[in-house]
Amino acid sequence: DAKTTQPPSMDCAEGRAANLPCNHSTISGNEYVYWYRQIHSQGPQYIIHGLKNNETNEMASLIITEDRKSSTLILPHATLRDTAVYYCIVRALRNAGNNRKLIWGLGTSLAVNP
Amino acid sequence: DGGITQSPKYLFRKEGQNVTLSCEQNLNHDAMYWYRQDPGQGLRLIYYSQIVNDFQKGDIAEGYSVSREKKESFPLTVTSAQKNPTAFYLCASSTTSGGRDTQYFGPGTRLTVL
Predict the structure, then answer these.
(1) What is the pLDDT of residue A96?
(2) Chain A nearest C-alpha distance from B35 (Å)
């Protein structure tokens, strides 16, 4: 699975859009981009995933560049409850063999300020 | 409610004692996973199971054991052989049908070995 690079921390004002970048320059054609977040001392929460088209759900939007080497997670109107560590992960939807793990980096710690 | 439950939320044990962490899901998912998270770090895979009565070692399986006798349950035993067992333990499950493989996480168990 390809490796991802994220900034260690970001700040955002409450009510504004939070744009979290992720670089995945070694992504291969069959790998999806997944985003999870983890609020302190809780289990990670799935947010969204995509392959090459932009995706939107009730939580966020995912913008993937045309060359698929980077992506941005957008929280359109950040609230204090969006303060969390956000993880960007790339993986094939069906890995070869039995390896189904997600490779977790350190993520981006997003602080939403009042 | 559908979801993944882990119990207990906090667990304290004396050094040298085995301890079993519970993970139950009612999502009808085939695959289940155990991760370990240390402070300020990403998640690392301990064991995973894609089907009942079958499981595979992850990256850090030494000192741990699992069983998968029922689809709904995937208990993790932390044995006395685990050198540094104090950590936050997370269980996850996913379905592999229809090409979807999103992992959903439980609330976690924080184990402290005294």
Answers:
(1) 44
(2) 10
**Is residue B50 within 8 angstroms of chain A, CB to CB?**
yes
Pairwise CB contact (< 8 Å): B106 & A105: no
- Look at the block and give the residue holding tokens 């392959």: A51
Facing residue for A100 by CB, picked from B31, B106, B107: B31
Q: Is residue B98 pLDDT above 70, yes or no? A: no
Tens digits of residue pLDDT in A33-82? 999 999 988 999 999 999 998 999 999 999 999 999 999 999 999 999 99
Interchain contact B48–A (C-beta under 8 A): yes
Instruction: Answer whether B89's CB lies under 8 Å from B76's CB.
Output: yes
CB-side neighbour CA atoms (13 Å) of A42: 14
| Sign of CA pseudo-dihedral A5, A60, A35, A30 | negative
**Residue among A41, A1, A22 nearest A87 (CA):** A22
